[in-house]
Each structure stands twice: as C-alpha cells, then as structure tokens.
Amino acid sequence: MAQPKIDPTQVPGWGVDADPKNDPTYPMKRRNDGEHAGYSWDRPTQQPATVEILHSNERPNLSAVFGTASPPVALSGMIRRLAFKYSESSYAHWLPLMLADRINEVEGVVHDLSQGRVPNFFAERGGKAQWKHSPDRMLGRLLIGAFVVSAAVGYFTAPKSEEDLDQMEDDSSRSVTSRCPRNVHHAVAHFQE
Fold first, then answer.
1. Is the Cα dihedral 36, 41, 46, 52 positive or negative?
2. What is the DSSP secondary-structure string of 10-36?
3. 11 in the Ramachandran plot: left (φ > 0), alpha (ψ -120 to 50) or beta?
4. Are 95 and 86 within 8 A, CB to CB?
5. How far apart are the C-alpha atoms of 186 and 184, rounded to whole Å?
6. How does pLDDT run across 51-91, given as a tens digit for each residue?
7. With a threshold of 0.85, does the pTM exceed it?
8. How far is it, in rounded angstroms, from Cα 115 to Cα 111?
C-alpha cells in the first residue's frame, strides 16, 4: 500500500529549522574547542559516598550527586561489580546489569519472606492497571505462565527410565489393592489367574 503524499506547507512546524538564523544548533556548529579546557562552571559540592557506588570506568570520578537507596548487595551486587569493569559500549556491561536486576528482584522477595512479609505480586507488578487497560494481554500472559509451569512440573515429575515406570506401576497397583476390602482382593487375585 502506497503512502499518501504529504504537503509540507500543511504540516504545523514543518521546516521550522530551515532558516539558518533560527537554527537551534547554530552555536554548536561554531566550536572553538573551549570545551576541552575542562569544567567551565563551579562544580557542586561532592556528596559523600557512604555506601559503595558503582560508576562507569569511562568516568574519572563520581558525579557530584548520586543515589544511595539501593547499594549493590549479594549475588546481584557481585554481578553489577563485574559489569562495571566493562565499557558502557559493550554487551558485557549491559547484559549482566539486566541479569542482576532480575536476580535482585528474587533477592527482594526472599528478603521480604525472611522478614515475615508476603509480597503482593499482583499490586507490585501493576496488575490493577494491566487488568484495566489490557485484560486480554494479561489473560494471555497468565495462560502462557500456567502452560509453562504445568509443562515444567510434568517434565520434572515424569519417570526417567523403564525402571521408574515399572516402580510407579507397582506402587499404583499396591495402593489401589491396599484400599480395597478383603473380598475384592480375592476377586482380583482370582481374575488375574
């Protein structure tokens, strides 16, 4: 399907930067290399580092102000420390950070449970908003999750060898006959002969 032709004169704001006298990037086009002289402003007072702060290996020092709400801890912290040894232009920096975020979520749940709090997963993951704005997508995710969990349970509880299968058959026949009345035992034995 062909895109309709757009008349630029009818689009509000089209060509707003066509006039070089009204070009917002104009001062940047005529650099004088003054930015290489260093800071041209007074640096704010350095915030004291009371916890471990991870920063890019491409920066010589900490930024003047930074967050201290969640310092790196446990396994996720170890992965973050490893990630910050690599450049920000590398997958070896960003992929471990994403993995550390997922691990940190599990660590948070374990911490909540150890403190006697049961996390409200529905609310913390935005369940109310999802149900309001995209219930079909939410139901799809729930069905996929139920399928994955049931497949995993089926895989891990399935017999692994012929011996396991034979053992399961023996156990099931014993459990059925042990719950039957005495006269049924005789009938089953007579029928098997």
1. negative
2. GSTTTTTT-SGGG-TTHHHHS--SGGG
3. beta
4. no
5. 5
6. 999 988 887 788 888 888 889 999 999 999 999 999 888 99
7. no
8. 6
